[in-house]
Amino acid sequence: MSAVLPDNAPPVMHQSPGLWTLAWRRLLNDRVGVFCLAIVVAYVSMMLASYAGLVAGDWNKEKGVSYANPSFLAGAENLEAREVTNRDFGTTAKPVDLSDIDPLAPRYKEWEERAAKIAVTEVKRAETLAFGGDKWGRDVLEKAIKGSEVSIFVGLTAALFATLIGTILGALAGYWGGRVNDFLEWFYNIFTSIPYILLILAFAAVFKRGLDTIIVILALTGWTGIYRLVRAEYIKHGGREYVKAAQAIGASHFSRMFVHILPNASHVILVQLSQHVVSFIKAEVILSFLGLGVPVDMVSWGTMLAEAQNELVIGKWWQLFAAGASMAILVTAFSMLTDSLRDALDPKLK
Amino acid sequence: MWQMIPTLAGVILLIFFLFNWVGGDPAQVLAGKISNPEQIANIRKQLGVDQPYWYQLWVFVQQVFTFDFGRSWSTNEEVSRILLTRVGPTLTIMVPVLVIETVLAVALAVMVAYVRGSLTDRTIMVICTTAMSISFLVYIIFGQWLFGFILGWFPVQGWSESYWRNLTHYAPLPIMLAIFVGLAPALRLYRSFFLEEINQDYVRTARAKGLPEKTVMMKHVLRNALIPILTNVGIYLPSVFVGSFLLEVFFSIPGLGREIVTAVNRSDFPVIKAVTVYLAVLTMIVNLLVDVMYKLVDPRVSFK
Prior knowledge:
The complex is a heterodimer of chains A (about 350) and B (about 300). In chain A, about 65% of the residues lie in helices and about 5% in strands. Chain A has helices spanning about 20-30, 30-50, 80-85, 110-115, 140-175, 180-195, 195-205, 210-220, 225-240, 240-250, 255-290, 300-315, 320-345; strands spanning about 65-70, 125-130. Chain A has a two-stranded parallel ribbon with strand order 1-2. The longest helix of chain A has about 35 residues, at about 140-175. Chain B has about 300 residues and is mainly alpha-helical. Helices cover about 75% and strands about 0% of the residues of chain B. In chain B, helix 1 runs antiparallel to helix 15. The radius of gyration of chain B is 24 Å and the shape is globular. The interface between A and B is large, with 45 and 48 residues.
């Protein structure tokens, strides 16, 4: 008698990994991709930490002297910084006595007394800051971190909205074809016949300034490329057998569009999303620089660059460097991650 | 050709919707903070915004076709005059940029595609990616400071009446910066066009019949890759007229781009409306011309 095999042993089933598992594995094998992903994750966590107030919460405080040197340049000559620190308020010449013709003269004393009651805490200002200070002695490094919050938030949200608009319109046009397609193509033609930057400026002219506005503007003007690609995917997939099979089992139009076809177009959408984040971060910086972006009480890399223009002339390069470099690193990492993502999702390319 | 008409109608509708509906009441902006209802009513009447929407739209359509957008709200200069005088400086900068950049990018892309996969190729691509990620603003601020302020090779900013003086004296630095910034993305894109062609069957055939690699690249690949390159230049062409508004702002060049930025800041709607409509028309015409040029370049293309 042969050995009795336990008949209740679980059958060895190898579930084949799905698209996303495979893509994730391919991405993990791509050393450049992983490195870039790490940088992007670091930036996003920095942004979240800054949003939660854990870092750079007091970026707006004037901690150092005006144009404080970066710590690693502590000994370097800095005329602008010295001028402020050495200012001696005690020895200013007495103004000419005008009390006999000055109608306000009798009240000066009263005002002085009132002024004396207000406690002014003189903050000890640092000579150097980690990465230098700006005109008001704010820490440039903290500004750059706080600025990343605005820039990344705008880039991500605007890209999400633009992708949403592009995907929905593209799905409608590609799936239904016919009149719907004609109408949406007309709409697409209108938006693309106006040069992109002009379209943004035209939208900026009519909306009020603000963080939400800039997101709306970028989303409303930036959906066209995604629309076109998603539409092409839907046209390609619309006639495939699996969609017909879905129809045969009674799947609704909505279900076919967004449950069946959408996952098959999602890799295209993800890559587009990632690309748009990069271009919107760049666009935000330029709009903020022109004063069309974030309000004055916020800091973004764009407003930092606007200040840096005048600082460079007097040799204060650190703000330009901090804003430029933090943006460049993020954008490089993000675009290389996009490339890796595309390779991972579509191995036929390369 | 005929599909231009619905598109133009759409553009007019979109701009009308933006500026006459979303834009709100311009009288409030123009009258300023100190104003009484009477003044506002006056301004509204002057601008015609007290009329019903269908009438305002009709006026706007008339403006588009008669090239008469009235006067600027902030400077009272005629809008058509503003456009005509500002387009010159913009083209002085942008035409050389477009020509030099395209020629350079195509030439470099052929060379890079020729040595594809080598260390040189990969190094250049990494440099391009890095160069693309630095903001245009940083290039301008740094370039203006280095070449204009520190080295003094070029004037920091300015513009004159004389065309030659502009071209030889004031324009070179902005042109140089624009080319420098535009080269990296163009090079990357054109390289990918060349690589796509290199994998085609006709290239293998050309090699198989014993042609040297140089002839294959210059005669076969280059000519076929020119088609997507032409499309790309065509897409880019209309924005030549907007110019690089950043360059114009930084270098005080009295061009269209700077005019638009000023108009946006001053809520000077007639100027923005006019520029947007006419550039949309221009874009459509350029697209049509590019389609016609396809036919000349590539005999396989036929019009449906």
